[in-house]
Amino acid sequence: MSERQPASASNQSPSKTSAANLSTGVSNSKQTLLLALIMVSSLFFIWGFCHAMLDVLNKHFQNTLHVSKTQSGFIQTSVFGAYFLLALPSALLIRRIGYQRGILLGLLVVAIGAFLFIPAGLWWRTFPAFLMALFVLSSGLACVETAANPYVTVLGPPEGAAARLSVAQAFNSVAYIIAPTVGGALIFGNKVAPGAEVNFNSLLIPYVVLGCVVLLVFAVFSFIKLPTIDDQSASESADSAANAQSLPLIRRTHFLCGIVTQFLYIAAQVGVNAFAVNYILENAITKDAAGATAIAPVFEWYQGITGAASPEATAAYVVTIAMILYAAGRFTGAAITKVVKPNRLLAFYGIANTLIIAIVMADIKHVSWMVLPFCWLFMSIMFPFIFAMSLHDLGRHTKLAASFQIMSIVGGAVAPPLMGYLADQYHSMAICFILPLIGFLATTLYGFVYPRLLAGSSQAAA
Asked: Which DSSP helix (H) or strand (E) runs through 415?
């Protein structure tokens, strides 16, 4: 579906166009825009589930295919590397075919990637085969996200973009709650006898179901009609839209710094996600010099009430608690922006996570693992806020700028292998959290200096 406006509309004066359209630049009712927001937000659940399952896959492949922590980090590399390679081509394609057709194409590729888990698990049964399936699946996700994220930011008044995207990302958070639970129950739910043949059937179930759900969503989006959005008209004013046309992105300091910040934040988020299970197990279960095992009392209690079949499953269920906090943060973060400016909230949450990671790196045995889940509470708003803040008032450059934001997700491909390497080298998970610490420090700084960066962009456009 193309976003081009009819020729008659292009001949109208700016004042008439402004009067005829809502702040989104299209003559859509509030009810239509709300329905579109809900429909597009449902897509966030899909990629949230795919991303959250990665946290379980790392430990699963370490156990079943006997890959090292460094090698298992390449799971995230294959996923977020696809984002880096496909985001810009997706944006260029979406500029030609529109948001809706871009979403449909992405969904189709996601379904293909999900079904590739069948031959990977039944016949090939190798680590590279699963990486290939994840790469294809993530290529589709890159296209969907490149269309959906900026579409939500322009689907209403510019001043509400960050809150709107945070609410949409709440659907993503729900998936983050479900995926570790599913992974813990299916993948880690059965004890495997030493020397027994590896069976990937439990891994195939969630991905086959995912593929079927994606095809169903594809069918729904094939029959509905999303409101068309003119990115230029979605800017705050006719003057700012004109400036956005003439000023290249390279001179928008708030956008450029947003790209760097997003890269470092995603590296932090994915790194924390990738090795959360490893860290929880290492911190909650220890051995003394004599080789005797000591389990943290709270961890042992939690394993009992959840009925987890293994320590790995218990750790996955701890991550489920983290994801509940993540979802809560998404909902409450959008509400808090009514009284606290998004950039200030971003900075405050960055400080909180910096302190949490410092405690994690201190590696207080049987204690630090209980602090780690709160990291997700404060991570909850970071991606949508950085995304919306960096795309503020970019006019017709919005789609292209969004693709660079999606490309910055490649930070998630870089951090896990580096963290895995540090963990293997120093035989400690705590030391590798130095990379997330850098990411949260960068996020804090971006939040504090954002008003100056935005002012600099405005002066350049004057």
From this structure: helix 411-426
Distance CA 462, CA 454 (A): 12
Give the pLDDT of residue 412.
84
Mean pLDDT over residues 120-146, rounded?
91
Confidence of residue 15 (pLDDT cuts 50, 70, 90): very low
Token pair 């390679």 is found at: 85
Beta strands 285-287 and 293-295, pairing class: antiparallel
Cite the beta strand spans of 272-331 per DSSP E.
285-287, 293-295
Calculate the CA 452 to chain-centre distance: 27
Strand spans (E) along 333-444: none
d(C-alpha 381, C-alpha 407), whole Å:
19
Is the pLDDT at 126 greater than 80? The verdict is: yes
The CATH class for the domain spanning 27-461 reads mainly alpha
Cβ atoms of 318 and 181 within 8 Å: the answer is: no
Contact between residue 358 and residue 408 where contact means Cβ atoms under 8 Å apart: no
- Is residue 137 within 8 A of residue 50, CB to CB? The reply is yes
- Report percent pLDDT > 70 for the chain: 84
Tell me if 262 sits within 8 A of 443, measured CB to CB: no
**What's residue 132's pLDDT?**
95
Task: For the chain, give every domain's residue range.
Answer: 27-461
Residue for token digits 């990291």? 375
Whether residue 334 contacts residue 322, with contact meaning beta carbons closer than 8 Å, is answered with: no
Residue 91 half-sphere exposure, CB side, CA atoms within 13 Å?
20
3-state secondary structure of 293: strand
Spell out a b/e string for 274-284, using b for 16 or more CB atoms within 10 Å of the CB, else e.
bbbbbbbbbbb
With both helix axes pointing from N to C terminus, report the angle between 30-64 and 201-223 in degrees, rounded to the nearest 10. Answer: 160
In sequence order, the 6+-apart residues with CB closer than 8 A to the CB of 115 are 207, 208, 211
Written as six digits, the tokens of 425 are: 């080298």
